[in-house]
Amino acid sequence: MTKKIFFTIALALLLVNSSEVLAQATLRKSFNLNGKWNVIVDWYGSGNAHDIATQKRPVTKTDFVEFSFDNSQTLYVPGDWNSQRPELKYYEGTVWYKREFDFKPQTNAQTFLRFGAVSYRSEIFLNGIKLGEHEGGFTSFTLNAARAIKTGHNVLVVKVNNERKEDAIPARKFDWWNYGGITRGVWIDEKPANHISDFFIQLKKGSLKELQGFVQTSEHKKQQVIVAIPEAGFKKSYTTDTSGKVALTASVSLKLWSPENPKLYTVKVYNAADTLTDEIGFRSIEVQGTDILLNKKPVFLRGISFHEEMPQRSGRAYGEADARTLLTWAKELGCNFVRLAHYPQSEETVRLAEKMGLMMWEEIPVWQGIQFTNPQILQKANHMLAEMIARDKNRCGIVIWSLSNETAPSPHRNSVLKQMASDARKADPTRLISSAFDHFKYNGNQILIDDPLSESLDVLAANKYMGWYAKWPSEPGNVEWKSNFNKPLIISEFGAEALYGNHGSKDTAGLWTEEYQEQLYKDNINMFNKISFLRGVCPWILADFKSPARMHAQCQEGWNRKGLLSDKGFKKRAWYIMNDYYKQLEAKPLQVKNK
Ligand code: GCB
């Protein structure tokens, strides 16, 4: 067996066999398993999966069981374990979760278990039967539970492990908290045997009325499927091929989604046995020279990045209320765009952002230090990419899929990311592809974009910390950006740290003052105003966030302080600079420069 084949087989075993890629909330009636779950913290990883999953009990008088859920502690799902119990704050290891529930399957229905996200590795057992494994802490996955679900009492056990490893994505080092646990919701979905297992419906790239997409049924046979958008007076019947799939084509007159008018339509997709209903918006997004065109009009992306974290609670954000808090801040800043950093965030966040008129950049956690030489990495990254696109491909608010963040050019990295760009385009030809870079050449006061991967991208994205990690080569207003590519650029990160309420010098970084951060924002904006191909800006970051990599004793104490908001949600001085800049940009819409 060649090494490559061995790795392919090993990886296939690692990942859930999920043909039910449509892991989307609200499409069907679901039964949620959220709430208090029993847990066993497995400090040394010594628990026996079989015994724990089958809840082994003592039989004779000399038997005993050490790993038992009886009278065990509990944790809330959804939720990270780090913020729920003080002794788990820094924990990186295994926790066993158990949830018991009563269930009566519908006649002729198939039962699936859907996980919003489990960080980072999981093994899922229902009534003692192993349903599958999953790797990746930020993507949804679905398991067919038919062979294990019972009428009546059921016991679901999930082994969760969040150890950082070299061959994981992200790898061993990253600049955010390694929250572990079942961090998003868990649901049971019931579907008719011959159900709609997936569908994709968006506007074709560059068109304002041509639909593009597909419908896939679970039974692989020829059959009729119907797509209807009643409010737009559209209803069309299609016949699938023998694999149950059909390409969607149609011309429809629609009110287009935009930040100013985030219009969503009720869309129905059905066959003889099953109906799915979703709220979907339609817009076109494309690139023309150095312009980004939304619905054929040039747009400047007034962005902000944020982690899926509630600073005030020092924990993972979850649910719609947290999403609303984060997104309301983004709107207040004057944004029309958010960068969901550094991983796919919850479905609640994505759906709400779209409703609030925010365009989105969604990325997978291919973040620095990735083992590109490892043959498993392409498959793992592609699996995450596929899961991200599978869940969110009908969310028109998402305009950019991003493949990676700050990866150093090398032959292996270039070929992995190039392949991913091509696979992403195959899975979704309607959106733009990007990747955030941090390697640039300097020539006097000139910064040159020459990363070879740029050829494979639609939008260039630069993380550039002028005045913080990088010294100004000359006066900010004299710094020139050059690009070897005729493509739009987004400054996908810039910023500086400041401790809220800490006032003083505006020219000494090491004092963590609000004034230093404020001045740095002014200088960067001065530089941005001179970049002719700049089409978006995304400061790093909305709010201070927790990171064990940030250990300055007085100013950081485990917090990255680059937030425009403090860890309590208070506005730092730089907030107002950014807010003014966005107000000015909003007041003067862009004209098409590149024909
Ligand atoms: C970066 C990373 C981001 C870090 C940030 C920082 O370039 O993309 O994840 O948190 O810099 O604060 O250093």
From TrEMBL:
GO terms for biological process: carbohydrate metabolic process; glucuronoside catabolic process. Its EC number is 3.2.1.31. The keyword Nucleus does not apply. Residues 55-192 form the Glycosyl hydrolases family 2 sugar binding domain. Keywords: Glycosidase, Hydrolase, Signal. Gene3D superfamilies: Galactose-binding domain-like, Glycosidases, Immunoglobulins. Residues 195-283 form the Glycoside hydrolase family 2 immunoglobulin-like beta-sandwich domain. Transmembrane segments: none annotated. The keyword Signal applies. It is an enzyme of class 3 (hydrolase). Residues 1-23 form the signal peptide. Residues 285-557 form the Glycoside hydrolase family 2 catalytic domain. GO terms for molecular function: beta-glucuronidase activity; carbohydrate binding. Belongs to the glycosyl hydrolase 2 family. PANTHER family: BETA-GLUCURONIDASE. This is Beta-glucuronidase. It comes from Mucilaginibacter aquatilis.
